[in-house]
Amino acid sequence: MTKLIDMDTVECLILREYAAGHQKTAGELIEYLKRKIENPPEESKQPELPKLRNNDQRKDWLKNYKTWGLWYRDENIDVNYYKYDFEDGSRLVVAEYPQREQAWKCVPRDEHHYHLLEKGKRKAGTRNETYDQ
Description:
By secondary structure, the protein is α+β, with helices and mostly antiparallel strands. It is built from three helices and four strands, in the order αααββββ. Strands 1-2-3-4 form a four-stranded antiparallel β-sheet, with no helix packed on it. The relative contact order is 0.09.
């Protein structure tokens, strides 16, 4: 049986492999990509959202974003992405920039930025167009 695959997925995998500097022949690269597409990595289960009763518990939960599991790592720009999917379809994404040096600080440190992607949020100035469409 032949599996249909999205060409964007294939192109993305090819570019990622090329960028990672793997020295492979075209045939080896095609076989490698076939194996990756046919056997994708299993997505880890996220922990259950605990009952957060006060701001300190909420802050602790947000600080412990690494317990959600690594969602994606971009080797090209050295960024780790963690996500938490909520029951309503919204998603919280944390972009982590490890060991960044800053002009005003002498010691490199991890930076992280939170992005809330709300399900069904309307675009400004529209009546029924949402960001997640």
